[in-house]
């Protein structure tokens, strides 16, 4: 079984100092047992200013800096854009501040395994495209195991979009112990209705769980409600996030609202509204519309869509 938490060697936190309490700060940084790099110790406002571009945490005491080369007012405006503390503030809770700085800088030492269900109450919302872009961007960003399970009513839309040809389905994986297909480093498992019907429900649930157990991120592309509803809900593992898609048409938005309300009652995990393919002409009509993620219409490279979704799946992960 896959370890449900992926770990990597943490990068050092870059710290700039503008304080006379250097020894105490060094000791406190060391005692946090977190990797760090002091990129410089400044004695003037101008010197500290030049340390700021790579700094992720700044510890400064105004009284310890000579005002040379740069006025304090201008330096303070720049410092306001970074996590900046006095030495007393830092020394009071060094571990908490270091961890906060690491999160703000996008340092994630561990990624919890997650399952994302991309769904809609109707077709034509770009659901399969969004699912693919999410897993593709995740794979490119992390090089970690990621799977896309496409629950199909008929043929695989993903296979058609990417000219995959025949690939092992969930039936083949569950009943014939076939190895799932790989496409651009992503595990692809179509769940074709006519074949999946031949798989006993407990076996179907077990196969879905095995896919999740061997991947850090698993994305399900499925219309909802589905006749496999009970099996799908029973087969979900760990942290689950539901993304309900719609496009800016009245019928699609109404379907989205109804589905969100239903899922909030029956589904595990948070449910987010994703509004896809928004064009400039739509903005006025959408004023006041409740949504959690807004995605623009993109005619070419759609990687930006995957990046936006990934930021909601793993907040803090630099994409």
Characterize the structure shown.
38% of the residues lie in helices and 24% in strands. The model has no long low-confidence stretch (mean pLDDT 89). It has an eight-stranded mixed sheet, with helices on both faces. The longest helix has 17 residues, at 250-266. It has 319 residues and is α/β, with parallel strands linked by helices.
Biggest sheet layout? 8 strands, mixed
Question: What gyration radius follows from the Cα positions, in whole Å?
Answer: 24 Å
The strand count comes to 14
Taken in chain order, the helices and strands follow as: EEHEHEHEHHEEHEHHEEHHEHEHEEH
Q: Outline, from the CA principal axes?
A: elongated
Mean pLDDT: 89
- Stretches where pLDDT is under 50 for at least 5 consecutive residues are none
Major sheet strand order: 9-10-8-11-7-12-13-14
Termini gap: 28 Å
Secondary structure category? alpha/beta
Helical percent range? Answer: 25-40%
Number of helices: 13
């Amino acid at each position: 079984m896959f370890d449900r938490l992926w770990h990597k060697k943490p990068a050092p936190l870059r710290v700039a100092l503008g304080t006379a309490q250097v020894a105490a700060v060094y000791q406190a940084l060391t005692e946090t047992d977190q990797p760090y790099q002091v990129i410089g110790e400044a004695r003037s406002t101008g010197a500290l200013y030049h340390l700021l571009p790579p700094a992720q945490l700044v510890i400064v005491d105004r009284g310890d800096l000579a005002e040379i080369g740069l006025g304090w007012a201008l330096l303070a405006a720049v410092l306001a854009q970074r996590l900046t503390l006095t030495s007393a503030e830092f020394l009071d809770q060094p571990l908490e501040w270091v961890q906060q700085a690491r999160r703000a800088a996008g340092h994630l030492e561990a990624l919890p395994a997650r399952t994302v269900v991309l769904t809609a109450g109707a077709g034509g919302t770009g659901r399969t495209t969004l699912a693919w872009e999410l897993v593709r961007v995740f794979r490119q960003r992390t090089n970690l195991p990621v799977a896309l399970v496409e629950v199909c009513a008929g043929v695989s839309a993903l296979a058609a979009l990417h000219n995959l040809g025949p690939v092992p389905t969930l039936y083949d994986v569950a009943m014939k112990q076939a190895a799932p297909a790989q496409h651009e480093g992503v595990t692809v498992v179509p769940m074709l209705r006519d074949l999946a019907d031949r798989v006993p429900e407990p076996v179907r649930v077990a196969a879905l769980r095995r896919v999740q157990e061997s991947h850090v991120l698993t994305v399900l592309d499925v219309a909802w409600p589905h006749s496999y509803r009970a099996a799908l809900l029973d087969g979900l593992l760990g942290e689950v996030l539901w993304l309900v898609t719609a496009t800016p048409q009245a019928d699609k938005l109404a379907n989205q609202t109804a589905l969100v309300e239903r899922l909030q009652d029956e589904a595990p995990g948070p449910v987010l509204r994703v509004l896809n393919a928004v064009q400039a002409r739509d903005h006025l009509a959408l004023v006041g519309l409740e949504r959690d993620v807004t995605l623009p219409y993109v005619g070419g490279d759609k990687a930006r869509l995957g990046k936006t979704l990934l930021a909601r799946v793993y907040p803090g992960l630099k994409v």
